[in-house]
Amino acid sequence: MPTVTLLKPQKNGKRVNVYLDGVFSFGIDLDNLVLSNIKIGAELTDDEVKKIVRKAEFQKTLDRLLRFTMIRPRSEKEINDYLKKKKVHESLWKDLFDKLKHFELLDDAKFTKWWVDQRLAFKKISTRVLKLELGSKGISKNIIDDVLEKTPIDEEKMARELLEKRAYKWDNLDPKVAKQKKFQYLAGKGFSWDIIEKVVIKR
Q1: What is the pTM of this model?
Q2: Segment among 18-27, 59-68, 79-88, 161-170 with least mean pLDDT
Q3: How far apart are CA 54 and CA 57, in angstroms?
Q4: For residues 121 and 125, what is the distance between their CA atoms, to the nearest angstrom?
Q5: Residue 30 contacts by C-beta under 8 Å, 6 or more apart in sequence?
Q6: What's the Cα-to-Cα distance from 24 to each of 21, 83, 90, rounded to whole Å?
Q7: Rounded CA separation 76/107 (Å)
Q8: Could you tell me which residue, 138 or 121, shows the higher pLDDT?
């Protein structure tokens, strides 16, 4: 059976490289090193090595995911994309998702509410753009519609505020040209014809 011949601390001080029969085999976090009773001279069967490696890989990936989700809330699709990018074995995915949900760090409905609140507070964008953004994050139509229905959004007010901030660009233009510019600007922001008509044509 393979024998542990060297335990070498990694630079971060939180993990250890394990050498079997003089050859590097795997890295493992300190907690699992102790729990697995790995020490120099210990003999490990191939099955034991596989289980330990899986446990170590799971913990390493979970630690990275926790940091990833602490930066800002994430959708399930974003976690999926992250795991694919990092080439994490799919056999670990379900347990990783379960852990994140247990820690209340993965909930598409809560993510959607957070995303909408943030975008409305700092970007003043239309519901159409919000739906497109959330769709790209993998959020289902039902969740998007439910959150938007419960969120007070005054698109007319937002459109007027956006025009006021850029009024200096159009003040000296011919009125027809100015209206066209305003129309194009708001249309590019995803506002509907009804909203644009109210704030540009009928103002």
Answers
A1: 0.80
A2: 161-170
A3: 5
A4: 9
A5: 14, 15, 16
A6: 8, 25, 24
A7: 7
A8: 138
The pLDDT > 70 percentage for the chain reads 99
- What b/e sequence results for 30-52 when a residue is b if at least 16 CB atoms lie within 10 Å of its CB, and e otherwise? eebbeebebeeebebeeeebeeb
Closest of 95, 33, 31 to residue 61, by C-alpha: 95
Q: Give the Å distances, CA to CA, from 45 to 70, 124, 140, 170, 185.
A: 38, 60, 46, 76, 67
* 49 in Cβ contact with 2 (< 8 Å): yes
Question: What is the distance of C-alpha 195 from the center of its chain?
Answer: 32
The amino acid that residue 13 corresponds to is G
Query: DSSP letter string over 45-87?
Result: -HHHHHHHHHHHHHHHHHHHHHHHHHHS---HHHHHHHHHHTT
Check: CB of residue 88 under 8 Å from CB of residue 61: yes
Quick one: CA dihedral 40, 43, 46, 49, positive or negative?
Answer: negative
Q: How would DSSP label each residue in 86-98?
A: TT--GGGHHHHHH
Spatial distance between the Cα atoms of 103 and 166, rounded to a whole number of angstroms? 44
